[in-house]
## 1
Amino acid sequence: MAKDSALWTAKGEGRKLIEDLDELYERAKKARQPHEPQWLINLAFYLNKQWVLWNPASSRLIRPVVPSWRVMLTVNRVRSIVRTEYAKLTKQRPTIGVQPARSDPDAEAQAKGNEKILEYLWRPSGSDRATKSTLLWALITGTGFLKNYWDKFYGPVMTESGEHLGEVSVDGCSPFETYWDPLGEDVEDMQWCFHVKVRSGAYVLEKFDVEMDEQTINGEDTLEGRLGALEEKGYGNLSGILVKEFWERSSRKHPNGRYVVYAEDKVLYAGDNPYPKVQIPFIRVRHLPIPGKFYGDSVVTDLVDIQREYNKTYSQAVESKNLNLRPGLLAVRNQVRTPFTSQPGVLVEYDLIPGAPKPEPIVGKETPATFWRLLDRIEKDFMEVSGQHEVTHAQTGASGAKSGIAIAYLQEQDDTRLGPTSQDYEDAMERLETNKLRLGRQFYLEPRVGRIIGEDNTVEVFQFSREDIPEDVDVRVQAGSSLPQSRVARQEFIINLWHEKLIRDPRVALKMLEFGDVEGLYEDLEADMAQAERENETMQQLRVVVVEDWHNHPVHFGEHTRFMKSQEYERLPPDAQTLFRAHIAQHRQFEAADLMAAENAQGQPRQGAGFGAAVRSARPVPAIGGALGELEASLGLGGPVPGAQAPPGRATGGPGP
């Protein structure tokens, strides 16, 4: 296709295409220009180049010319705040799940298999690196982009000649290298977009089979060049090839969409959009969404003026210190012959002029207390604007909190400021993971072998192909899963679950305490709840369900009593209701036996265990007569509970001493 495009260019048809696309490119470039000054300022402040101003005449950042003795100190609080937000959002990966297409076992198994495919693709596709890069761009400038595409030059090697099978790939893109249709407010609304990047001649030859000489590129067209002003070098010129990718959705004029790649006066590729299910292969991530605007904003924008005043105030404090340590000399003109310096023991010579006073130092004034109160006020402004208080940085401050749970709670309150960012990030992850599966469905023509770390840190190897991915695949991200969760609070939660006997296996509890992970616990609890629900259905049919000692009695008790509060239970015949009450009584006997064993082992009653006060009272279960008495006898409720451990010093079936 690339060779045909080159011939097409030679015929002159490509020249008209490039002219038409460049017209769209200039339109998008003009629409983006109002946002660029703030992006560059924010980036400069993050990069510790904070004594800069935007010059609208030259459309560049400049550094003011000041005397050499002026102190221009930079205490970069912006980078600290960005790093904290970045660390919180990248501390854990969002919890990703694939929704089954139908409510049947086959569809559920297929969804589980697709989750394994996504887990396998996370690192080979570059998702880890790309998402972190995109998040950092979003935190600094307000907007970052993920680009997901099929790279036919990547993936497993298919032949001895080194030909690759191709693989789903993900790149992180800055807002400086993408240009968007000015009429859209979301990526889904965009009819077209450009991705412009400086590439090497080797890249163009490898990807498009076209030889091109690298040229000197104007620094105004690249981010690297525009940042040259921060190093006082002006625009830096790069050597390479400015490659422009054009993506267009399907329309009446172009039913299959368009994908065009060109550089200078050559069309490197021109054809239909290769991704009919994806169309525009970019996903936007914003820090602070703005209603009605495509680009988001960043908290750095709000911190720029505060940071400037902070630097200025600190610099003035240093200048005041320098002036007091090295005061100026007050002397008659031409009286002092030795240049005055701050060198220790310096000898200052002067000409004695009759009637004129000898040179004397100019004594500076002490810095007023209001000056230091201003610095304290600026410190508080940083906290209020950024939403990061002392507790965010592991300092209790004025709160005085000492408990780990209390500190974790305060930190969680600070993290609520990241809610809009995490929601936008999670939405982006849903689109990204969905698109990855759609690309896999389209391009996985040969079976693949995936390897992931399964349960108990064992390597799980599985095979998959395009047929394993449904056409209408649907990926969901658990809401709030991208926000950090306190490990201390999670461990405290696990300990409470152990005390309440919702976790019954000590090995499971220790494993969760080590990693602070409770996700696997919910699957076990769901299995216990499902078992109790099946028992409800069985007992409605007047069939006895035997209670085993290994059952999760608190969960079963909760599910059974929840059903007994329903109208459906009230409509059951008396024998069925009696069966439920007998079943509940047996669960209580098991739990009471466990509770008494624990109390005797510890030598005192333990609060907060079992079902609560109803179980702690350990009241004897009243005698049950009639039909329930027969059920009681058949279930052994009148004697020892099968499988129950008797407390020390107490007979299995009789009362204690």
Note: Residues 500 and 612 are 9 Å apart (CA to CA).
## 2
Amino acid sequence: MKHKNIFDNPDDDDNDSIAVPELLLKEEFYRTFIMVAGKIPLWAVQPSGLEPEQLSIWKKKALEYGGFIDLGTFDTMPVEEIQRGLLWQICKAPYDPVKSVIKASMTASYQRSEKSKTSLPVLLCDKVKQRFGQSIIDDYAADPYIIAFERILEFYTEIGDPRALSQVKAAIFFRLCGFPLVALPAKDSPKRKILDRYVRQWQLSSTRLKKLLEYQIWPESEKTLFDHTMIERLSVLYKRSLDQDSDNSYPIPVSSKKEMDLKILKNKVNKIIHKKKGVLPHCSTYLGLKPHSQMTIIAKKKDENIKSFEWLLFSQVQNSPSLSNLAQSGQEQKGAKDKNYSLLYSTEYFLKTVGWSMSNHLYIRGTTNLKTRSPFKLYKSMNKEADCDDIYLALQPWMPLSDEPFLSEPFWEKIVVLLFTANDTTVSSNTGDSATVSSNTGDSGTELTHKSIEQSDTDKLHKPEHAEFLVRNSWGEIFFEVMNLEQIDNLEKRCYHTAMKILEYHEKQSHYTIFQMASKPIPKLIQRIKTIVEDTKVLKKNSDMNNIRRRPYLDTI
């Protein structure tokens, strides 16, 4: 905290992380009446209404007395700070959308309204200080919670949007009840008194009250919808602030560091608000905060066709019977309703199910044990068996290690490919070619070439039915795509099309890893795809070099 409200540090060379909205943080600091190094901020005891000369004399004597520290003061909140604060809260929303909506609403209330072109809103810290000066002992109406909530409710009433007012009332209710682990505050506690007051004041029906209190047993779809609604409310607040500031013709110069911060904030907000096609969906805040020490993915046959599967992700709360037995007996739903199990997610693709658990940070390496129950095994290169943790490592880091990537447009960094084969046919090729292709492991002497693939194809060698792709970009967005290969008869062509899809994502700074899921792997299949990828990259590079050489000498310079 600085006396003149100048927070830029010219000696700070660390540009990897964005700075918090400083004035908003200072206002919140004053509002909480925190001491600094055992000293009381002078603002907390400074009388109002003094002339500048009187105030200067008062400050001098107060500091001579000791026990106080002068951190300066401010009367208004600049529009630029308000908008940065709103962007900041959107970035924080995925972790606690209720808290973000309340804080963002307070921030938005500092902007001059269209109805009041002359007067500026009083800062909340000054309002709290004034209320404390007028209150009596144990006056819970002077509680900063009450003052903040009153400010928010007045703000939304002034806007004249009933839907927005209803949403913020739900946010206030949940905030008092400890969102996301929603429960009534202790009886006779300050929070309970405030909550009881609002229940009466808002005339909440018993049905509505029961619905809010039963948040923890809402379906996951309802929880995610609520989170999305809160984030949408934040987006509306930011757009409203921009619209109100459209007539501002007095731009204030800012430092290059703040310009970088603003660019990073806007790109982070774009990642949260603008969902791109193929991005893995987010789970609810509630589900993300629950501990998941043991998770299991089980394969369930969708019908008699062995190639058609559904992958179900379970979270095990306590020691319980084997989930594989539940899958085989068709009792998944019964198991999901059991107190020991929770069905978190299900799709028809293994890699999408795994990726969803990891992108939502339900799987925490070293803490969560993620197992797979299926008739198939996961393999890496050279037919080496793998597990879900290998997929996690192939895509890490799942989140950017700093804010620097948000200074530019995202690019593809990590690509994970899964070749899924459900056919168990085992074939040995005796066509006279020196290369023998077998589906047994340990066949280290074989080499899968274009010729051997074509010959094996005539022997009905089992081929991958589809290829699944998880792709992470530099912003930490995880995309899923699947490519159906069953329409392609030739195994070599399946390898080629898979390789071409990898190259669609592959860039200079990207890295790809290929896995295979089957009961028995195809020897060297992964190596064949990698060979096509690398050969194509070399051909493209040579072609680019030839194009450069053909240019006129001066054009090349």
Note: Residues 318-338, 425-448, 452-460, 553-557 have pLDDT under 50 and may be disordered.
